[in-house]
Here is the input.
Amino acid sequence: MIRLALISSSETAKIYSGLSTRLHRATWTVFAPLDSSDLSQALGSSAKVTSTDDLFSQETAAFDAVVIDADSATAESVAKTVVDLGKPVLVGAISQWVATIGEANALLMPAHPWRFIPSIQAVKRSVDDGKLGVPGLLRIHRWHPSSPGKAPISERLMPDVDLACWLFGDTPESVWSLQSAANEDYLQFHLGFTNGGMAIIDLSASLPSGGDYYSLTMIGGTGAAYADDHHNMNLLYSGGQPNAIRTNQGHIELVQQLQEFVDVIDGKREQSISLADTFRAVQVVEQVLESANSCEVVKREESK
Here is the structure.
């Protein structure tokens, strides 16, 4: 049984707590909050400490591996400490700082939960199995309501940049971005790949309050595949007015990512996401932002 420590906000911990019964050969044993919220319901009956400092000074014998769900600055400082302890760590919001760690004595797995969404995995299988022919056009929409606490633009770009590189199996040779002067929360960018394929992706954080919208379409030479976040509505009738219940997948992408982390620690499989994947996506995100600022095409160094 792999004993997991979680480092996150208390609200995020409630999500992870609900996943515990869906993990095989793993259990949460300790939680270190990144805020001062009430911890009583944060991670079930797991032990709780008041800070990450206490986690590393008092509870290192209580866990085998660490899951970090935090902003990039926090993730950097905490993940380095975990690596120094020689314990496996699953961490999101990592950037080029990982390159400074060098040869780590423990597993350091980057978190890319968007790759574990079942509908997107189905698209990837269609590409890998040759069912779509040569990938030609990837179209992604990711639109969210306006929020004062939204993540930095670089972190919001990361998922779809990574998905584009993953689905094409390549690094784009050219990047062009368009950002509206009237709406700085809308960004469209184009990624050109060496096989002639292109990804056209738009990101918005200015929808009216309410639901968001996501869709992904990959068009190849002989077929197309589609994934979205549309939820089915089930009709419930028990007398009186009928109700429509919106279904969801219960954070299955987090479950599958955590299970892979546990399986890699156990030696039951190879990890599907490498630090090189994250480095590549980070570099392309930088090019997207560079192009948005310069209003010019940015080419990969070896393509210039």
Observations:
- The mean pLDDT is 86.
- The domain at 2-111 is CATH 3.40.50.720 (Rossmann fold).
- The first strand starts at residue 2 and ends at 8.
